[in-house]
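Lab notebook page, bench 4
Experiment: in silico fold of construct C2
Operator: M.H.
Input chain length: 92 residues
Purpose: comparison with the prior construct
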Amino acid sequence: MSHSAESKTERIDIRTNSHVKKLLQQAAAASHKNVSEFLLEHGLIAAQNALTNRQVFALDDEQWQAFQNALDAPTTDKPRLRRLLTEPSVFE
């Protein structure tokens, strides 16, 4: 079932100032939508982008091979990093 086919039983309330409200109304009108439709559409896009950026990343064949090579490469000693992780912190 698509999101638009589900019954709309939940409400989201937001508070803003008059300048922001007017801007949203103008943008909604320019998109031939009401403010609720405009905010919902663009809010969903922003939410999907935010979650996708945390869950999925896409690489072309060359980037994928470079990523695989980096994972397969032997580790190198990093004395400064080892010291940072093994010495007591200034907060301890």
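Observations: The CA atoms of residues 3 and 9 lie 12 Å apart. Residues 18-86 form one domain.
Next step: discuss at group meeting.
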